[in-house]
Structure formats: structure tokens, C-alpha cells
Amino acid sequence: MIRHIVLYQFEKIPKKVISLFMEKYRACENLVNVKIEGGENVSSKVELSGGFNFGLLMTFGGSDDLEKYNTLKSHMDAKAIMAPYLKNTLVFDI
């Protein structure tokens, strides 16, 4: 099992755009062994967030699933949708 953690720093991203890219990410769940959760930072300690204001937690069955996910059209579409609003990204796999 691999946990793929992605933190995003968005600038002025509309809620509609968030819904759209999450729809694309969730489409990946039908194509590879992954469970995807995501949401905005709701911490009361925003100063500790490093400016990251949205996160995804993906749980993959294994490294083959993560590699396959990285090539999925739905994944590429999600990245393209958020790109105009993205200032920074942090990826961490455990």
C-alpha cells in the first residue's frame, strides 16, 4: 500500500474549478486501485500550513497502481484544469 499525499497552494481558485478537478481525480478510482480523498485546509493553525490550502490523500494498492495512475488521462486532465491557479505543489509518498 502506498499513501500519496499532495498539497497544493492555489491562488483565487473558484469552487467550480475545485469541483471539476476533483471529478477528474475521482474518475481515476474506476481505472486503477486507488481511493482518493481531498479538501481545503480547515486547520485553525493556518500559519503552519506553509501557504498550502488544499490537499489530496490517495491510497494505492501498490507501486504499480501509482505508476499507472500517473499516466491516466483523467489525472492529466485534472492537472490541466488546476494549472492556471496553482502556485506550488508538495508531493510525499509513504
Can you give me a brief rundown of this structure?
With 94 residues, the chain is of the alpha+beta class.
Instruction: Report the end-to-end length measured between terminal Cα atoms.
Output: 9 Å
Broad CATH class: Alpha Beta
What does the average pLDDT come to?
93
* Low-confidence sequence ranges: none
Radius of gyration: 13 Å
Number of domain units: 1
Shape: globular
Note the beta-strand portion. 25-35%
Largest sheet: 4 strands, antiparallel
Q: What strand order characterises the main sheet?
A: 2-3-1-4
Number of helices: 3
Question: In CATH terms, what is the architecture?
Answer: 2-Layer Sandwich
In CATH, the topology is named: Alpha-Beta Plaits
Going by helix content, strand content and strand pairing, the class is: alpha+beta
